[in-house]
Amino acid sequence: MAAEGTGGPWVPRRGPGVPADCSSDDAHAVGRGPLPVLRQVAAACVCPQLLGNPALPEVAQRRARRVLGEMDAGNIGGYNHEHRGLGVPARVARFLQRRDAGVPCHPRNVVLCSGTSSILPFVLSLLVDTGSAVATGVLVPVPGPPLLGGATGLAGAVAVPYPLDEERGWAMDGRAVRGALRRARETCHPKVLCVVNPGDPTGHVLSRQNMEDIVRLAAEENLLLLADEVQQERAFLPGRPFLSFKRVLGEMGAPLSSAVQLVSFYSLSKSVAGESGFRAGFLELVNVEEGVVLPFQLAQSIPRPCVLGRILLDILMDPPDEGDPIQQALEEHRQGLLRDLAHNARLVQEVLGRAPGIRCRPLQGGARAFPRIQLPPRAQRQARALGLEPDVFFCQKLREATGITVAPGSQFGQPEGTHHIVLSLLPPAATLEQILLALTRFHAAFLRQFS
Question: Are strands 372-373 and 158-165 parallel, antiparallel or unpaired?
């Protein structure tokens, strides 16, 4: 029996346990379970009647009592301005200082938010000169998260794409960025350079040298550096650890450490907890001019995290403590996540490496892979006759034949003349292997039909 639309051998339909979206970086949506103690603390805060119930572990009860002790009248239902404005930002600042090997952080530079997608347009809008006839430009990486371009448009600015170098492991090429700047300045005023580290969907982690080059470029071109670092807890390659731009900037010393403006992001959704539904995160402002900082202190319309998201975020900020059962559980969960991501990255390389017409750059961090796929000219012509990008056409045919849904590379941007797909590294290994085998069999049939 031939698979519909391929003319090749039959490919089985999506089996049980295979996620509806096999390119998602939402940990819980693709089969990873939550950390029970976090949910237990949240449950006790919502329903204090659970305190004293032997069904709820004592460690969760103790933490819930501590949280409720910081709330107005011991109740999470109030605005709890002090917890939001002072308590949590202070603990975030201490977390950042530990992460960055002692580079100072002041709580006033920490802004809690309900996630990157909601706060990013607000941040960019503060940099737009509404009175100017020349549009504000925001440099965004290609490939990169579609959110960056969308948020730029919502802020009233213009996205200026710059290419990442696939052959150099998706590194940023300073010459390419300067070329994009030169061309953009003919039509807009570029003010912001967006960098995503670890890369999404490319799976790369920037080296210190590349980061230092980026900092120097931002200084020379007078650009605010906007660092999307939400995947930082998913850097799984021991030889390429995650470094924050805040740390690299601080360790480069004066004058750069006090001159380059930096805004960086952290998200509960992409943290070790992977709690996307609780919508919480924060950004840190470094060397940012007062005109940009002030609106964060005054505006009541900033999308703030819900109280439960803030509570879970706060727990993740705790310092490592071998005597704290919650921290022990978090560390076990973290190490398990990194082991699984590293194993799945190797699995992607092994399975796709055996498939003619598919190749994937080595993966170092993040939750996705971005393999490059060969699409025959005949398939590309048929796709364009239907008004589709060739990789969209391939993904549609893959879904029709196998039930497996992956995202096309064109959704994230890709080098001209190339085609990619996006795969999640988060499903269980057995499930991911099932996805990869179905993908490679289908691709082989696709090549035969359109060759």
Answer: unpaired
Q: DSSP characters for 71-84? A: SGGG-TTS--HHII
**Quick one: tokens of 63?**
């933490």
With a CB cutoff of 8 Å and minimum separation 6, the contacts of 85 are none
Q: Are 111 and 302 in contact (CB under 8 A)?
A: yes
DSSP assignment string, 251-312: HH-TTHHHHS-EEEEEESTTSSS--GGG--EEEEEES--HHHHHHHHH-S-S-PPPHHHHHH
* Residue whose pair of structure tokens reads 């910081």 in the numeric block: 70
pLDDT > 50? residue 392: yes
Only one residue has tokens 């969960």, namely 333
Per DSSP, the three-state class of 228 is strand
Cα–Cα dist 326/332, whole Å: 10
Residue 185 gets which letter from DSSP? T
Judged against a pLDDT cut of 70, whether residue 21 lies above it is answered with yes
Is the Cα torsion angle 287, 200, 32, 393 positive or negative in sign? Answer: positive
Q: How far apart are CA 370 and CA 156, in angstroms?
A: 30
pLDDT in tens, 317-339: 988 887 899 999 999 999 999 99
Burial of 95 (0-12, 13-18, 19+ CB in 10 A): buried
- SS3 (DSSP) at 162: strand
Strand order in the sheet with 224-228: 110-113, 281-286, 262-267, 224-228, 188-196, 135-142, 158-165, 171-172
CA nearest neighbour of 198 among 268, 270, 250, 139: 270
- How far is residue 389's CA from residue 410's CA, in Å, rounded to a whole number? 7
Q: What is the rounded CA–CA span in Å between residue 357 and residue 371?
A: 10
Rg of the chain (C-alpha set): 23
pLDDT at 16: 59
